[in-house]
Every structure is written in structure tokens, then in C-alpha cells.
Amino acid sequence: MKSNTQLLAQVTEFIGYEADLLDHKGYQDWLSLWTEKGLYIVPTDLDETDYLNTVNLALDDADMRRMRVARLENGESVSANSVGYTVRMMSRIRVLEAGDDVVIARCAMTLNELRHGKLVTYPANVEYTLKPVDGGFKLDRKVVKLLHADGFLRTVSFIF
Amino acid sequence: MSDLIDMKDVDAVCIGQRAADMVDDENGRVKKALYSDTEIFEEEQDLVFNKNWIFVGHESEVPEKGSFKTAWIGRHPVIMSRDRKMNIHVLQNRCRHRGATVCEGRKGKTNAFTCPYHGWGYGLDGSLRALPKPEEYDNVFNKEEMPLESLRWESYQGMVFATFNNDIEPLEEFLGGAKKWIDLFMKQGGGYPVKVLGEHRFNFPGNWKIQLENTTDAYHFPIVHKSFVTSLDDATADIFDFLDGEGFVEDLGNGHSVMVMIPQLVDLEADLEQPIPERFSELAQALRDEGKNEDEVKKLVRAAHGTGFNLNLFPNVSCSMAFFRVLRPVSVNETEIQHVALGGEGAPSAFNQKRMRLHEHFQGPMGFGTPDDGEAWERVQKGSMAGEDGWILVNRGMTKLRTSEDGNPQGAVCSETGMRGAYRKYKQVMSAAANAEEK
User: Over its length of 439 residues, how does chain B's per-residue pLDDT go in tens digits?
Assistant: First the structure.
């Protein structure tokens, strides 16, 4: 078991790296961060944890992640072509569980999107389940709990 | 007093007629100002949303005693509740005392609706049960006179519609030719009663009629949804390549219309002898593992797609392939949409899970389809502001109509037959002749 300070630094580095990839549309590198069975989840119901038996905004396995990225990159989606940039701030990072096989962390995110010249803001809690590998991590589960998940959202053509 | 003309009503009739005149039925076009005229929008709230049957929910959303969901009729917040005798009620969400909402949240279970302001407590049927210090109302009013105001409601195949118009025809008469299609739509429970599984919610900066038009617009599909089609396997992509197929759009009357994109998926209980498509082999195996026999497996797999048609019901709901689309006008240039996912009550979990995953794939704010629709609609609202005056064209296919087996006008799948039907109804409900009589 590593010291908490060292682990927190590693987790923070990973979360920062992933956020940077997504803001700069480094989607192929982002795909390689995942375990094969990993799930990317954006729920509609913040009280729900049985995601497979619930309607989510997104519940992506490896195939769906690959297709989502292809859709954003292939130039065929008019909404993806209209997305300007996103800038996300990740903070309040806390390690909730520090096992040898799995590390669970939670943080706050504020994502800002410029859309047709207007700023749209998405505050969220984000939960990461990380698998330690070769001195780094693979992403096994990422749950993005938008503060207004059950409200009427603007449509989203980027990755949280 | 009776000789005096109420000027407010005269204004309203004039504005309604102005909107009606903007629909050029003969040439299949409407004035673009219908998307942005605020006076007309205000009048639509009364003439379209208060005077017609408005979808508020599905009976499965209030499954038990004490279940409720909140909804809207136009801009009116309402509650759909299930009382202790399992009767459904549609109530205005407004305390009779000082007007606060008595119920918040999307859905839930409760014993009573209690106003947070002064503690007036209402039963699930809306009756006023108790209030603090009632003696101060002695000889002022009786509790029986102050229930939550109840709306007339009727349902068809579990779809609950309510109205502020007590003189409107019965729901089934209003639905008319659409009933046959609702019956077909409800076969997608795969032998189980259709049930709401959850929903997506999103908004777009545009007028509600832009969404109303879209439900029977096949013409946009291969353009706007190219990125969705690319994400599919070849066999599924072929199914969605329907513009040159045998599909059609039929005007069902009363503003309702159906667009059949995939004729082989109109009746989900037919053609059950077909082999199971490769893309559903995993689902089929999961159903066998849950103990389903081969006939049941085939029925469930065929239903998993949803139907091959979109049924548009004027003015606020559609039965679209596998989900309900519900629209709500917020302002002249803002509309809120719900995409309600459906499955089978008591159906195998593998079936309902598949339905939810298919829903997430296309629908909602993060689906592979909805964001591109939203982008197109936003651009319609923005672009329609160009120029002092101008037309929106809905005349596609209008000279190539035939008569359907039910005696309705029918055009090609990518015709704008459904939109013209909706605007014809709109013209009728907005017209002075229709409203002068009442006023």
C-alpha cells in the first residue's frame, strides 16, 4: 500500500491527464486509457446505482465508446462539427478506496462549453474506478453525475 | 353589460386568425413568423394547449396507490396521481390558498400533497383534507369547496390525456384514425404490457412546431443522422436506409399522422417465423438462458427494435418507433422535450436492458441522433429570422398523393404529408370562426 500522498498525486495526475485529453479532443488516446470491460456512465438518476437496469444519458462499453469517438471525429455529425471547445476544471480530488487491485476516487468537475458563441456550464461529481497497472492506471469505470442530470439539458456533442 | 364587447377576446380572435391565415394549406407552406411571433405563441397556449387533449403520461408511471408524477399542460404544472382505490387523477399543481405548488420532483410516492407555505393538506384525489387553524375559516368556506382543481382526463392503451376543455369530444373520437396505430405501437412489449422505463430530457432554442414537424420528416434522416447510421452494423444500417423503400406518410385526420419507415416492422406480432438477426443473437441467448422457449424468444427479439413507424399525435406527443416523444412549449423560442423509454412490465431483464441500451444509443442529450436533430432545429429558429417575411415549405410530395386503405391521403415516406395534416389542424384550432363561436 502506497502512502496516501503519493497515491493522491498519482490519481490527480491521471484525472488531469484524462481531462486534458478530452478538452483537446485526444479521443484515440482517451480510448486507450480504458480496461476492456470498462464502462463510461452518465446517469439520469443520481440516486440510482443499478445502471444496467436504468435509462442513462450514456452507458458506454468499449464498442459504444469507440462509436461515440468515431461519431465525434468523422465529420458526419452536424452538432459535433458545431462544438467549439470545452474547458473543464477538476478539483476536490479524494481517494475513497485504496486497494492493491482497485483505487476509487471522486472529484468535482466544472465543464464549460462554448456553443454557438454562448457559454454553457456543466457542474458534476465524477467518480473514477481505477485499476493499477505498470506504475499507472487503467480506467475501469467513470461515472459523471451532472448536478442537473434530471433537468432539461442542452444536447451534448463532446465527452464529459 | 351584455352589449359590451370584451376587447380582450376580440384581440385574441384576431391574433388566432392571423396565425390561421399564415397557414397556406392550398400551397403547402406556412409563414416563418409562426416560429417567432410572441403574440401568436401566447394565443397558442390557449387555443392549442388549453383546448385540446394533451398527453400527460402513461398509466405505468403511476403503478401503485400513492404514486404520482408531475407534468405540464402547456405552461400549467399538473400532477397525475393514483389514489387509494387505484383511480387516476389529473390535478392542477396549485394550492387553492395562495397558489404554491403542492408537489415537486418528477415522480414518487406519497400519502398526501401538502402545501409548504401554510400546510394545507390534499388527498391523492385532490380533496382538501386538513389545514392548520381551520376555525378562522368558519362561515368563510367549507373544505369541500377547495380541492385541488381536477382536470378531465381519458386514456387510450394506457396513454393518459387531459384537457382544460370540458366540451371537447371524447378522447377516442379525437384520436380517430390514430387508434389503429397506437394499438400496433403497443405490441412492442413483446407479449408484456408496455411500461415506462425512464426518460431523457433536453431543450432546444426553437419553437415547438419545429419539433412537431420533425416526427414525420423522413427526408432529414440520412442527412442529419448520417453519423448514427455509420455507427450501426451493415444489416441495421440497411434497415434505416428507407427513403427508397415502400414506406409512406399518411394523414390520419385531426392533425395526426403516421410515417411508416420500415413496413416489415409495422406489426411486431407478424412474421415471427423469420430467423433471428445476427445482431440480436446475444439477446436471444440471454432470453433462452432466462428460460424462454423459442417462440417467446422470437417474439421478444422482434419487439426489441420497436415498431417501424412514427405516429405523430397533435399537438404534444408522438409514438416514435420505440419511445414517446413529449413536447412542451416554454416560450416562443424555447421547447422542452422528453424522450420516454418503453419496455415490458414483467418482461425478462435482458429484453428491457436491450431496449434501454438501444434508447441511449440514439435518444436524449447524449444520444447519437438527438444532438444532431437539436442542432438542425436550432439553426431553423435562427435562420427563420432572416428577412421581413417568408415561407416555410411543407409541400414535398403534395401532387403525388394516393388514397390509403383507410381512405386517408397518403404520400411517399419522404413526403411532408404529415406536416401538412398537423398545420391543417393548427389552422382550424387557431381560426376566428372556431373561436368566435365559443366567445
Answer: 445 566 767 787 899 999 999 999 999 999 999 999 999 999 999 999 999 999 999 999 999 999 999 999 999 999 999 999 999 999 999 999 999 999 999 999 999 999 999 999 999 999 999 999 999 999 999 999 999 999 999 999 999 999 999 999 999 999 999 999 999 999 999 999 999 999 999 999 999 999 999 999 999 998 888 888 888 888 888 888 888 889 999 999 999 999 999 999 999 999 888 889 888 999 999 999 999 999 999 999 999 989 999 999 999 999 999 999 999 999 999 999 999 999 999 999 999 999 999 999 999 999 999 999 999 999 999 999 999 999 999 999 999 999 999 999 999 999 999 999 999 999 999 997 777 655 4
**Residue pair B337/B204 in contact by the 8 Å Cβ criterion:** yes
User: CA dihedral in degrees (B416, B417, B418, B419; nearest 10)?
Assistant: 50
State the DSSP H helix or E strand holding residue B393, giving kind and residue range, or none if neither: strand B391-393
- Closest partner residue to B365 among A71, A74, A154, by Cβ? A154
Domains and their CATH numbers in chain B: 61-155 (2.102.10.10), 176-426 (3.90.380.10)
Instruction: Walk me through the domains of chain A, giving residue ranges and CATH numbers.
Output: 4-146 (3.10.450.50)
Subunit contact A53:B352, Cβ cutoff 8 A: yes
| Beta-carbon separation of A55 and B372 below 8 A | no
Alpha carbons A100 and B170: distance in angstroms, whole number = 66
Kindly state the DSSP code that residue B278 receives in the 8-state scheme: G
Chain A residues with beta carbon closer than 8 angstroms to that of B227: 71, 74, 76-77, 80
Q: How far apart are CA B369 and CA B360, in angstroms?
A: 10
Contacts of A156 in chain B (CB under 8 A): 365-366, 371
Give the separation between CA B210 and CA B206, rounded to whole angstroms.
7
Q: Where are the alpha helices (DSSP H) in A24-139?
A: 27-31, 62-73, 78-82
| Nearest CB to A70 within list B197, B231, B337 | B231
Asked if B231 contacts B368 with a C-beta cutoff of 8 angstroms, the reply is yes
Candidates B106, B359, B372; nearest CB to A78:
B372
Task: Give B245-276 as a DSSP string.
Answer: SS-EEEEEETTEEEEES-GGGS-TTS-TTSPP
Q: Is A86 in the B-facing interface, judged by CB distances under 8 Å?
A: no
ipTM field: 0.94
